[in-house]
C-alpha cells in the first residue's frame, strides 16, 4: 500500500542557534553521529527490502540532517526503490548544494524523486545567502518549498524573500506559536498575500485518528506512531510492522502542518499525492496573486 512514511533519527544537533529551539547550536558527538547514521542506514536497508515501504518517505529530523552526507546517501538509496515515488527531508538549507547533490547523484540518486523543504531563519542567515541556495536548487531542477515562521517583526524580510524567489516556488508561512495574541488584520492580510494557504495554519483541526491511520512515523529505534505529535505507539518498524489496531492519539488538535496535511477538506488537491512535502503542483505566485 502506498502511504506517507516519515523518519526521525536520533540526531539532536544543529549548526544554527535559533533562540526558541532546544537543539540550538548543539554539536553532536562523533558517537551520536555514528549511532544516527547506523540507525538511518538500518531504516533505509529495511525500507528497500521487500514491498512494505511504498509511496513516499520524508526525513523530519530534530536539528539539521542535510549537512551530513550520510543522509544524502540514504536518500539516494531510497530514491532507487521502485516502490517509492518521492523522498525528501526538512532542512534549513545551509548545506553545500553542489557537494551534497554530487554525493546524492554519486550514489545513483534519482533527482526527479527528490523533494526538499527549507525553512528560512532570518536571525541565522542572510536573505541573499538563503535565496542563493534556492537558486542553486532550482538550477539543478530540484523540487522544493521554502517557509518561515510568521513572526510579525520579520514581515519586511519575509516580503523580500517572497519577491526574490522564483514565482513557481511556494513560500509557506507557519503561524507563530507563543505570539501571545492573535494576528492583527493587517498582519494576516500580509501573510495571506505571501502565502495564499496561510488560512490553513490559522484554523483549528480537531484530532481525528481515522484520518491519519495510514501514515507511519518511524523513529530511530523503529518505534512507530501515526504522526509526529502523538506519544501513542502503534508498533515497531522492525518487529511489528503491520499494526492494524485503532488507537486514541491523546491530542485535542492536529496542530502542525505534518499532522493536518492529510486532510483533503483542508489541503488543496494540488498538494497531492504526498502533501507532507508541501509542494503544490503548478504553483505560480505572481500570476495568481499579484
Ligand atoms: S494529532 Fe496526529 S495522531 Fe492525532 S489525529 Fe492528528 S495526525 Fe492523527
List the helices and strands and how they pair.
Elements: E1 2-8, H1 30-47, E2 54-59, H2 69-79, E3 84-91, H3 97-106, E4 114-119, H4 127-139, E5 143-149, H5 155-164, E6 171-174, H6 185-194, H7 198-202, E7 216-219, E8 223-225, E9 235-236, H8 257-260, H9 285-289
Parallel strand pairs: 1-2, 1-7, 2-3, 3-4, 4-5, 5-6
Antiparallel strand pairs: 7-8, 8-9
Question: How would you describe this protein?
Answer:
With 290 residues, the protein is of the alpha/beta class. It has one domain: TIM Barrel (Alpha-Beta Barrel). It contains 9 helices and 9 strands. It has helices at residues 30-47, 69-79, 97-106, 127-139, 155-164, 185-194, 198-202, 257-260, 285-289, and strands at 2-8, 54-59, 84-91, 114-119, 143-149, 171-174, 216-219, 223-225, 235-236. A 9-stranded mixed sheet has the order 6-5-4-3-2-1-7-8-9, covered by helices on one side. Helix 1 (30-47) packs parallel to helix 2 (69-79) and helix 2 packs across helix 3 (97-106). Bound molecules: iron/sulfur cluster. Iron/sulfur cluster binds next to loops.
Structural class: alpha/beta
Number of strands: 9
Strand/helix succession:
EHEHEHEHEHEHHEEEHH
* Count of individual helical segments: 9
Assembly state (oligomeric): single chain
Whole-number average pLDDT? 93
Distance between the termini: 41 Å
Strand order of the largest sheet: 6-5-4-3-2-1-7-8-9
Main sheet record: 9 strands, mixed
Amino acid at each position: 500500500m502506498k502511504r506517507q512514511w516519515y523518519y526521525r533519527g536520533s540526531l539532536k544537533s544543529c549548526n544554527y542557534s535559533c533562540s526558541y529551539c532546544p537543539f540550538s547550536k548543539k554539536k553532536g558527538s562523533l558517537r551520536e553521529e555514528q549511532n544516527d547514521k547506523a540507525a538511518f542506514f538500518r531504516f533505509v536497508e529495511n525500507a528497500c527490502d521487500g514491498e512494505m515501504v511504498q509511496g513516499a518517505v520524508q526525513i523530519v529530523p530534530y536539528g539539521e540532517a542535510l549537512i551530513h552526507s550520510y543522509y544524502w546517501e540514504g536518500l539516494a538509496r531510497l530514491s532507487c526503490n521502485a516502490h517509492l515515488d518521492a523522498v525528501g527531508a526538512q532542512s534549513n538549507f545551509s548545506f553545500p548544494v553542489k557537494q551534497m547533490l554530487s554525493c546524492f547523484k554519486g550514489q545513483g540518486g534519482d533527482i526527479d524523486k527528490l523533494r526538499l523543504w527549507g525553512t528560512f531563519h532570518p536571525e541565522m542567515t542572510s536573505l541573499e545567502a538563503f535565496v542563493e541556495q534556492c537558486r542553486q536548487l532550482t538550477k539543478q531542477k530540484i523540487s522544493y518549498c521554502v517557509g518561515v515562521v510568521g513572526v510579525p517583526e520579520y514581515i519586511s524580510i519575509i516580503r523580500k524573500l517572497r519577491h526574490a524567489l522564483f514565482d513557481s516556488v511556494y513560500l509557506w508561512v507557519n503561524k507563530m506559536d507563543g505570539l501571545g495574541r492573535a494576528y492583527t488584520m493587517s498582519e494576516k492580510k500580509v501573510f495571506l498575500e505571501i502565502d495564499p494557504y496561510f488560512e490553513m495554519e490559522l484554523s483549528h483541526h480537531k484530532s481525528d485518528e481515522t484520518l491519519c491511520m495510514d501514515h507511519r512515523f518511524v523513529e530511530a529505534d523503529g518505534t512507530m506512531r501515526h504522526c509526529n505529535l502523538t506519544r501513542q505507539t502503534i508498533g515497531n518498524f522492525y518487529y511489528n510492522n503491520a499494526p492494524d489496531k485503532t488507537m486514541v492519539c491523546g491530542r485535542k488538535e492536529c496542530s502542525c502542518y505534518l499532522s493536518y496535511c492529510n486532510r483533503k477538506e483542508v489541503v488543496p488537491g494540488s498538494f497531492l499525492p504526498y502533501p507532507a512535502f508541501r509542494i503544490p503542483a503548478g504553483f505560480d505566485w505572481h500570476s495568481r496573486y499579484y
